[in-house]
Amino acid sequence: MSATEDQADVEKVLAGDASAFEGIVRRWQGPIVNLAYRFCRDRARAEDMAQDAFLRAFRTLASWRREAAFSTWLFALATNLFRTDLRRIPVHPLPLVDIPELRDPRAIDGGLEDEDRDRAVREAVYALPTKYREAILLFYFHEMDVPAAARSLAMPEGTFKARLFRGREVLRSKLAKVRVSPGLREEIP
Amino acid sequence: MTRDELDRILSAEDRIVPSSGFAASVMDAVRREAATPPPIPFPWKRALPGLVVGIVALAGLIVAGFALRASAIAAAAPATLSLHQLIAAARVAAQQADGAGWIALTLLLTLASVFFSFRATGSRT
């Protein structure tokens, strides 16, 4: 449904009807803003980045080859733009060793609260080297769909899987001491 | 922490909702973009003959300069040369001529790369 609507809107825009682009914006604003937010963790910046992505899409709409889904093309374009933007003005995450929760992983009750632990995990993701961080962000953004995430990053699936694997290994090693709350499995002996 | 744990935590990432004016703001930018006339492409067809003539003239000038210098050196040389001196002079002249050729080639490659980069960027806009 959405694919045919996208195609119809693209045809209209390419025929000179710029207002038809609104349909594309309305359909994809949520995913694109959320993708940007995953990269920068700043709502205002995410909207600016998403707007730039839509503008770039509008300018280069003619370069969309119909063999791939419009969403695939749009996500790849947006991801590429967000990566460039983040290289230009980086988000400064805490180094992994400075994440407070990791310094004292054993809370008084014997484990971090779920919320704290989740936050620690997310901060640890943002402290990863860029290539691993991007692989992990895209993998979970695409609901663990490896081909979709690899296409967004414009890299072969094999390369993507290797980065994802390595990123997870780094994360797991850094977070090995983080206890899970009661009821969940604990890894610390 | 297990892989399942990681998957569970990272899959449950917060989702944000775009602000109410986001789509309108994007469309304003899109309409501005659509209203802007396209950039005037560089007139390659008109400029190309001039560029080619310029490149050829520059290369010719360099080669002529080196040839002139070589002939001046030859004129200043003693009338009678031993075989050893003659070979040495020929070697120097050959090196200079070779250098001039390389300079001309480098200039041509530089101009060609500028030309193609302009073309590549021009075709995207």
Describe this structure in words.
The complex is a heterodimer of chains A (189) and B (125). With 189 residues, chain A is mainly α. Chain A folds into two domains: 2-88, Orthogonal Bundle (Rna Polymerase Sigma Factor, Chain: A); 96-174, Arc Repressor Mutant, subunit A. Chain A is 65% helix and 0% strand. The termini of chain A are far apart. The model of chain A is unreliable at 100-110 and 181-189 (pLDDT under 50). Chain B has helices at 3-11, 22-35, 44-76, 83-124. Chain B is elongated and about 95 Å long. The model of chain B has no long low-confidence stretch (mean pLDDT 83). At the A-B interface, helix 2, helix 3, helix 6, helix 7 and helix 9 of A face helix 1 and helix 2 of B.
Supply database-style keywords.
heterodimer; A: 189 residues; Rna Polymerase Sigma Factor, Chain: A; 2 domains; 65% helix; disordered C terminus; B: 125 residues; mainly alpha; elongated
